[in-house]
Design brief:
By secondary structure, the protein is an alpha/beta fold. Helices cover 36% and strands 16% of the residues. It is globular, with a radius of gyration of 18 Å.
Length: 245
């Protein structure tokens, strides 16, 4: 699977460049600080429309400006795809309308939110090569026992009788080995390395001296793991798998 690390990366720009060399990155529309470095040194990268930030902070996503940004970059050889604008906690009709407006010449990925119907997930999987799964509503916290029950239902809906997903799946904010090693993801993302690279207390006595080095350690621990090849129902579905990396 592809491990996309969310940017911007803390520390100096030199630290950010060292961290990103040879990795895969996610660049959010509201924080394009590292896009130049990403384009130069990453193996590949994707764009995030920033809907999660808008949802948390309030406000409206400038869909036209985001679309122009994607259009400017999508011919770059390292560009994989962009998340199509969506409304987190919005209704299915609103999100379907945004999908209809997306220019077909741009490589886009729709988001299925966990509070939406399983029927919509199945429809997206039949129409799109890649579908992103986003935690929302009462399932907004990945890794909880409640969340695992919902994601299990999603996997049963989107995978065939052999546990193989009907399209490529991307896990939004799911780049946690305790999560993606149990799911048949083609890719996943998180800002774990970027955010926690600045945490000295996370490492204790033997703490790497710079934020970039700490981020690299976190990323390496994540990248040592791969996703599951197929979906297999988890017997201990009531266990909370949320554990620190």
């Amino acid at each position: 699977m592809i491990h996309y690390h969310g940017t911007p990366i803390g520390g100096s720009r030199q630290d950010a460049a060292r961290f990103l060399v040879g990795r895969h990155a996610l660049v959010p529309f509201p924080r394009q600080d590292d896009v130049g470095i990403v384009a130069d040194v990453c193996q590949s990268f994707v764009f995030d429309n920033g809907a999660f930030t808008v949802w948390r902070q309030g406000g409206l996503l400038d869909v036209d400006r985001y679309t122009r940004w994607v259009d400017d970059w999508h011919r770059h050889p390292g560009f994989d795809w962009a998340l199509i604008p969506d409304v987190i906690d919005g209704d299915e009709a609103a999100n379907d309308h945004l999908l209809e407006q997306w220019p077909r010449h741009l490589p886009g990925v729709p988001v299925w939110h966990l509070h939406e119907s399983l029927e919509r997930l199945q429809r997206l999987a039949s129409q799109w090569r890649v579908v992103a799964l986003g935690s929302s509503g009462q399932w907004r916290s990945p890794g909880t026992a409640h969340w695992w029950k919902r994601i299990a239902s999603a996997m049963e809906a989107v995978c065939d009788e052999n546990g193989r997903p009907r399209c490529r799946l991307h896990g939004l904010r799911m780049l946690d080995p305790n999560i993606f090693t149990r799911l048949p993801f083609a890719s996943a993302d998180s800002t774990n390395a970027a955010v926690n690279g600045g945490s000295v207390t996370r490492f204790g006595t033997y703490c790497p001296p710079t934020a970039g080095q700490r981020a690299s350690v976190i990323a390496a621990r994540i990248e040592a793991h791969n996703s599951a090849a197929i979906w297999s129902a988890i017997p201990q579905i009531d266990i909370d798998f949320a554990m620190p990396i």
